[in-house]
Design goal:
Structural class: mainly alpha
Order of helices and strands: HHHHHHHHHHHHHHHHHHHHHHHH
Distance between the termini: 11 Å
Number of helices: 24
Strand content: under 5%
Shape: globular
Length: about 525
Amino acid sequence: MSLETTAAPDRSEEPASAYSWYVLGVLVVVYILNFIDRQILSILAVDIKRDLQLSDGQLGFLGGAAFAVFYALFGVPLGRLADRWHRVRLLTLGLVLWSTMTALSGFARNYLTLSLARMGVGVGEATASPTAYSLISDYFPSRQRATALAIYSSGLYLGGGVSLLIGAKISQVWDAAYPGGGMAGLVGWQAAFLAVGIPGVLLALWVASLREPVRQPDDKPGARHPLHDFLIDLSMLLPPFTFFHALRRGPIAAAVNLLMAAAMIGLAVVMIGLTGNLPQWSAMAFGYYAVFSWASTLRRHDPATFKLIWGTPAFICTALGYGLVSLGAYALAFWSAPYAETVLKLPKAELAFVLGGSGAVSGFLGVILGGRMSDWLRARNPSGRIIVVMFGILAPIVPIWIGFTTENATLFYVMNFLAGMFAATALGAAAATTQDLVLPRMRGTATASFFLATTLVGLAIGPYMVGQISELSGSMRIGVLSLIGVAPISFVLLIYAYRSLPQAEATMVERARAAAGE
């Protein structure tokens, strides 16, 4: 399949059809449920901590790396699978899996079983964004893509907000009705997991009815079935297969792979010694080693895709720059409710209603306004979308500082609203930028690579960092305020992305062709 035919279906001038908007609406509903299942842990955290006798660091692991590492790693081969297989079918299967694992979280009796269930949710949810981003990029022209992706991304904030309301209500009603535990001894937080997990299986029937857009067939002679390639891609991430792939590339590649494994093990040992958190740092070391191994193998199997993603500084800096935005956003989304409940002593019902409602509204407004603004700036400046991402990292600083140093509940709620809205503006802009820097056949892989940054940098570190610093300092307030320290790093990365993006996009086909040897 030549690069010319791959690039052809972009249809940048054709307007989106009514059916395109219908598909987008269904995908938003899926994403809302995605984040309800993912974020409901936040409002239940205090009850889970009490019943399972967990520390803040363990809670941070459950809200971050337990989900994020498996979400990120399985997103890589699933993103590649979305580039070649039936995306609607893949999303349907993923929805069934993560909904089932969410329901099974309700039967968790200890830290281990809840961790395993959260890992399963991560694997299932890894199908969502690669398939959705790829479908949206096919259904919407380039000039509307950031807006469409921003609308899809609004499900993140709507789901996150609704999860607080649903989780608090179900757990309180259940505990009031069954003070000693209801059916099978289940308590309120367990019932909440069951209540939000089961409907996803029914939603999968609706998703299965969507039409798959016609794509350029893979006419490479002797092409393997996409599921066969998925298993190969998965083996690129899982030891010891990672070493065998490296060995096939030669003794130098094998030695480099072993050195990377040793470095990650050494880092994990040091950090476990400092923090005492074995699951967090074992998962992080495994995740970063797996990504390194996959990227090294991708370079051999698909040099053009590797060049436009891992070999493009504009892509890497945009992904990492936004990854640090998401670090703060995910940490705030997880810890705002426990902070308000334990530090400000606000009642669970009130904070669930206010934080849930304001989080949904602020995130929705932020991501929609950010998407529209980034499309407007993009039409006038090739790097215009990066300006919106910069705003997303700098603007929340003042609201975070004020909101998490005040004792006034109203001021806390207002500042939390502003911080969430400002951070949300960056998502559509960053996502659309990474899609613009690759060819159409690479979009699923580009999405998976983008989400490696948002998960292995943002979600895996953010909630845990706040929890660990809170635990070490004895102050959850200090833990949250530590998030401000990532802003300068993100800003420097985004400045570089702003400067290098125009040339990277202008030379995209040429660089891919050179890498593929055409």
